[in-house]
Amino acid sequence: MNSSRILALICLLACALLAFARTIGTDSVISTTDTLTYEYPWRGVIKPTAELEKYAQSDVTCCWHPWKIFYHREFQRGHYPFWSPDIACGYPVFADSTMMGYSLPIFLQSFLPSNLAINLGFFLQTCIGMIGLFWLLQTWRLSSSASLFGAMAFGLSFPVLEWEVAVSVSGAIIMLPYLVLALDKYRSTQAIRYLAWASLVCGLGILQGSIQSMLYLYLAALAIACAHCWEQPSFFSSCGKWILSLAVLTVLSFCLAAIALIPALQFFLFHNIRTRGIVDNWPAFLFLRPLVLTPLTVLGTINPALLGNSHSIDFRPIVTAIFGNMGFEANWGSNQWCAYIGIAPLTLAFVAWMRRKADPHVRLALWLVFLPAGLMLWTPLYMITYTRGHGITSLGLAILAALGFEYLRQQPTIISKRLKYVHFAFCFLLVIGMCVVSFQSSKLLEIALSHMKKQQALGHQSMYLASDYEFQVAKIRAFIDNYSLHSPNLWSLILICLATGFILKALENKWLSVKAILLLFLALTAVDLALLCWRTVPVVPVATVYPPVPALSFLQKQPGLFRVNSDRILDKEIEIARPNQLLPYDIQTNGISESVVPSWTHNAAGEFLPDEYSNVRYLILPPQSALPVDPQRATPVYEGPDAKIYLYRHTLPRAFLWPLEPGETAQQARRRLEQSSPQEILSNHPGNVDIFYDNTEHLRLTFSTTQPALLIVLDRTYPGWNAMAQGIARPIEPVFGIMRSFEVQAGESQAQMVFQPTSWRAGCCISFLAATTLLGLILCRRRSTTV
């Protein structure tokens, strides 16, 4: 490796360090979400203001950060967790891909402090993505400076920063350059070893991210295939070869990721999947939605002041007030349409676009820009991907920027007056458009407020609108002020545009040398994207994420094993009752986790059973909420500004015995149990049971019974759980729909339950064989036959 490459890589790492240095090694956590306002979790602790950061995601405090804490806690206890008893009466974390159990941030949790592992994981993921694109551009014989420019534009682009915390998305985005590199090599050589390399990248992307990551990787692979087929004289013959190649890639990558995919498939079949959005108006979804979101995508791609600043807010109150939900209730997030890579890189991408007829690499990058974006915006694929695949678009734009940079280095005269005038015209129209938004602020505010009031009147308001209406009004005002002439973000945009224009003018008039001009482009882009990163990725102190709120401190002090629940009305539910947010407190819940709904507790008649049947002792409600159950069932035990807590009077214990009557089968006893009230169950048990959790997958039970009985454990049953009692393996049968039960004989004895999932062992074997095969193909230097 020559000195220029080493220097370029050092500069690349320095850029990533500049973006994330605020948190690495400090007691803070990076969050690209509106941690404190959108799903403001601890209203009684921190006073909300319109200055708090607002970003498109809302899952950090609800999902990703708590799960990382859970993994870290289990690693500290000495084992890798396959199961969590804390959520939904037990949850197979190894099978839910959104838990990202095989990702780099989870791996770091095994030997680093939790927050340091989280923040260092973000930094390393960014470095991995940038180094991948640097490597790709180097194989195309671009200079080290051009490769550095493109890698920096990609690694610090908005899609990468926006989804940094969502490893289920970023796990694919950071692998995209490696996939393009492998398939581009395969395109030129037709060697199977490069197809194996691409399969390895896709498999690692699935493992590092999720099944959703798979879609983004395959969209990129499809764009590369289309680019190659379009270049060939025999289009249909090339299409046939690529279809076969992509089929081979799919099979090999699926086999490599089998350790995650097979458990996930079993998980999918074992549950009813909750519908995340329903198309209620297909014409609006197919035609109106693309027409509305396409210009917003373009606007977000060229306008950094729209992104990630402390005054940002959802466009939804304004746009949906004008256009409705466009046929899909979960149709878009506030900033998800953006693919901003910097003003200077966008300008140089235009330089590359001018050379599209002469350079096949430019045409490949254009396919990466337009094909995934078009499919996401204009087809029903949007129902699955939303606009999260704009990481592919940002990769294509970054490649174009690097190619444009290289053209400037080689042929400085390519910059013409037309390009300079195009740049200034674009900047002028952009600033004028923002000023128009500012001058129409009163109208936009009126539209947004009327929409919010209408949603409240229809009962569709979300929890944060219902409880913080005035605060949200302040946020809307702040958002509109962001586009006014006194907005620092607007002036930041103007200055960056003027600086880019000055550099172009200096190059045209030869005021500076070409090397100096290129260094100015690099410095301006580094500053531009660092500012974007600091606006998009705020530092949130840990204390503001999970402070010791009084309600949860009260629950932590209660003895014994128990679960908590809320009223399950998500529009009104307070966040401290949500399943994942209870994980840092070691408080268990029977609430629903993530995107799956279990076949919930029911009796023999199929009727829903009350909370007492699933070991729920406490009910957590908002402070002003009325008790949603019969007052005879629960009594208040805590009331404060953060929550109201009720105690159920007749909660079943975590484990208990149910007698087998003479001549009665176990199935008949279970049916009789399901038809009994909690009071009858508590008064009719033939002995005592003590339960001990050795770890999340192993529990011991000591029991004493005067007659044969069913031993009931109010934990969820799932394939892979095995029971051993009195030295004999016992089959586990479901009771109350999802709970575990097995037979025991009279006397004093012990039993144990162990979770040993067969699906994981089968997936592990397949993944090992696939990894061995792929590595063998990759390391084989002999030219292979074509597919």
Explain how this protein is built.
By secondary structure, this protein is of the alpha+beta class. 52% of the residues lie in helices and 11% in strands. Mean pLDDT is 78; it is low at 32-58, 272-277, 307-314, 330-335, 460-467, 593-604 and 783-787.
Give helix % range. Answer: 40-55%
| Largest β sheet strand count, sense and barrel closure | 5 strands, mixed
Total strand segments: 18
Cα gyration radius (Å)? 29 Å
Pick out the low-confidence regions.
Answer: 32-58, 272-277, 307-314, 330-335, 460-467, 593-604, 783-787
Q: What is the percentage of strand-forming residues? A: 5-15%
How are the secondary structure elements laid out?
Layout: H1 3-20, E1 28-30, H2 60-76, H3 104-108, H4 114-139, H5 144-155, H6 158-162, H7 167-173, H8 176-189, H9 192-208, H10 211-231, H11 235-256, H12 258-270, E2 272-273, H13 282-302, H14 316-323, H15 343-354, H16 360-378, H17 382-385, H18 390-410, H19 417-439, H20 441-457, H21 463-467, H22 469-481, H23 488-509, H24 514-536, E3 539-541, H25 550-556, E4 563-565, E5 588-589, E6 596-597, E7 616-621, E8 634-639, E9 644-648, E10 655-659, H26 666-674, H27 678-683, E11 687-695, E12 698-705, E13 709-716, E14 721-725, E15 728-730, E16 733-735, E17 739-744, E18 747-755, H28 758-779
Parallel strand pairs: 4-5, 4-7
Antiparallel strand pairs: 1-3, 2-6, 7-9, 8-9, 10-13, 11-12, 12-18, 13-17, 14-15, 14-18, 16-17
Helix pairs in contact: 1-4, 1-5, 1-24, 4-5, 4-8, 5-18, 5-24, 7-9, 7-10, 8-9, 8-10, 9-10, 9-11, 9-28, 10-11, 10-16, 11-28, 12-28, 14-20, 15-18, 16-18, 19-23, 20-22, 23-24
